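Marked as duplicate of an earlier ticket. Keeping the data here for the record.
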Amino acid sequence: MIGGVTGEAAIQEVVDRETRAWNTKDVSLLLSVFHPDMVWAWPPHPLAHDPVEWRLSLGRFDRVRWSALYEELFRSRTLIHNRRDTTRIELSAERDAALAVVDIDTLWRMDATGGEDHWLGRTCKLYALVNGEWKMTSQTGALRY
């Protein structure tokens, strides 16, 4: 439950909070979504559906390290747009685990070079209910289907 919200609505609130964090470049808000054991696997490109190709570029969640990485990302890029559409939410029968499938279209412009970094595709976000709060434990990088 989050602020009296339960079930799928609680998961959507976490997805929306993460979206707000990206939109406002709010590192603290972004980190509030992550479980202490969060792991983020990224495919090398959006068509790399085989996990054999994926990389763990951030390692396990570390508040200090991830905070510094996101501060630098936000400082060095301009957000052009961040479109997100939740296509599916499912809670476990025990109501202590959930997944959210979110289609993302996030476009950044790198300030130093003017180059673009486009995050486009479908992600699967996994959550666990911990001490009454939903926390993201893992997410796949954006894939195109």
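See parent ticket for discussion. Helices lie at 7-24, 27-31, 63-76.
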